[in-house]
Amino acid sequence: MVSHVHLRRRRTKRLAAHHASEQHGDQRVAVIGLGRFGSSLANELMRRGWDVLGVDTDAQIVQRLSDELTHAVVADCTDPEALRQLGVHEFTSAVVGIGTDIEASILIASNLLEAEVPNLWAKAISRQHGRILERLGVHHVVLPEHEMGERVAHLVTGRMLDFIEFDDDYALVKTVTPEVVTGMPLGQSQVRSKYGVTVVGIKRPGEGFTYATAETVISKGDVIIVTGKTQAVESFAALD
User: Fold this and answer.
1) What does DSSP assign to residue 115?
2) For a FRET experiment, which of 115, 116, 135, 218 has its CA 20 to 30 Å from that of 28?
3) Contact in structure between 141 and 126 (CB atoms under 8 Å)
4) Does residue 86 contact residue 53 with C-beta atoms inside 8 Å?
5) Tens digits of residue pLDDT in 32-70
6) Which residues make Cβ contacts (< 8 Å) with residue 218, sequence separation at least 6?
7) How far apart are CA 12 and CA 49, in angstroms?
């Protein structure tokens, strides 16, 4: 049940959320669980002009965030009635940011699914936790610690400047240009046929990123954005 509600709404936040809503449709989101992950997410959504309802069972956390979010509420969302009182069933998006209490995470996700929230995200602390959430029907499962660990491992062990991997073994990489593809147009270098990757963007020293074309000539020291199968982009980024 809802035990205490902070309804401190700043006019600037309300206007920003209203403006974003007019431009992009309903931009209200409920973030349940305001630990490091949930509070960081909620604040970033606020920065982007969203109307954020933050919920946690810890009154001190809610008090700390009450001036930062549109609404901050103390409630136990394992109780479906608490969700109903908060009107979360009217939201188009919700995030379950609870990770350490797996039972609470699963119960809250189930309640949100029963409330037919159309776009549900949930944090998982392990692959097993993630599989359970997926079987429940959660639309988007996030394993932040695992995904960040993989990403940093790629950066530490290679020449990559950034690395993002997608579910279907496909990756996007920012890397310094290997010398083997410098000094000639991309169309002549046959990057795609030789290495199985596609160069989609380029950044020269002192300039911003631009799209790469078949006529683009890459020089030593240029930074490029490359896409392709994970193993292919890893091998390409490792070239001298």
Assistant:
1) T
2) 135
3) no
4) yes
5) 999 999 999 999 999 989 999 999 999 999 999 999 999
6) 177, 181, 182, 183, 186, 189, 199, 202, 212, 224
7) 10
